[in-house]
Amino acid sequence: MKRKILFWDFDGTLGYRKTGMWGASMLQALIEYDPNTKLTAPDFRQFLMSGFPWHHPEKSYTYINSAEAWWEPIQRKFVEGFVHYGVPYVDAERLAVNTKTLFLDKSYWALFDDTLDTLDELKNLGWKHVIVSNHVPELGEIIEYLGLKHKIIDFVNSALVGYEKPNPSIFQHALSRSGNPKHVWMIGDNFDADVLGAERIGIRSILVRNTDSRAKYSCKKLKDVISIVESELKEGTNNS
Q1: What is the pTM of this model?
Q2: At residue 237, does pLDDT exceed 90?
């Protein structure tokens, strides 16, 4: 039997950060510094809309060769935001470090309730799982903490390979690492990054936990992925 591979996005698809992402992490750090702050996580949004690698997925980031180098421009954005709201620069630098620490604190990360059961059911049907994610360099540690390490055969992290979804290079990299399987799908919650990016190089895709009329395949419940990939597999077999 030909190898059957499912590429999975991570954040928003399999797992999530319980208290929120970047703005929430900045706010957590600020509250520890100033418990009386009136700011909210959305107040930092303007400082988080640029400066991250995924804001320019058309570029290659293969020159970034360490976690420290990856985080450097991100932490500058944190500093910029804190200074804007009146935090002295020296303190802002310290808060930027604390923001990174809080973001990476594995206790803040969780899996969706249906993640493990869905992965297990698909595995029993012969599908193997690969995570393909735009994420921080430490994603592997988060995956292991959440118990996903033994559910997947590999993970492809943009911060490590130097290409961000929807750049075709990250999908081509994932295909190559997976042995160029005959049966392959990309599953994620972001239409542009996950669905459109994968379909541009011929990978069928499923939009999950989200809706978009442009998506050929979509489902709100992760378990519905099972019926989609299995029915398409049977149809393909009957037509071959």
Answers
A1: 0.94
A2: no
